[in-house]
Amino acid sequence: MSDCRTKEETDKLVKRLNRIEGQVKGIKNMIVEDRECMEILNQLRSVSSALKGVWEIMAAKHIEHCLDNASEKERHETIEDIIGHLHQLR
User: Fold this and answer.
1) Phi/psi class of residue 42: alpha, beta or left (left: φ > 0; alpha: ψ in -120 to 50)?
2) CATH of the domain at 30
3) Contact (Cβ atoms closer than 8 angstroms) between residue 43 and residue 27
4) C-beta of residue 50 within 8 angstroms of C-beta of residue 16
């Protein structure tokens, strides 16, 4: 297990992802059933928002972990590295 998440935090993330997985399956069914585009788009927006929430939690945990493990001297360089990585992920 990663050092940046506790078992409880991992369980919460998995629960969120399971919920998102269910939403995606529901969207797939909506498409197969030829439901209205706006109805599907609204559900897609919900999934996108939910994934963004998971991303934000993971990013925050990563930042906390990196800064907690950096010495005072390394913090500035660590912050620059994190910012660079986050820009790449955008």
Assistant:
1) alpha
2) 1.20.58.1000
3) yes
4) yes
Chain segment 10-29, per-residue pLDDT in tens:
999 999 999 999 999 999 99
Q: What is the pTM for the complete model shown?
A: 0.79
CA proximity to 69, closest of 52, 82, 58: 82
Residue 51 covered by a domain: yes
Handedness of CA 46, 32, 26, 39 (dihedral sign): positive
Q: Please tell me the total number of residues recorded for the chain in this structure.
A: 90
For residue 46, give Cα distances in angstroms to 27, 42, 43, 70, 75: 11, 6, 5, 36, 36
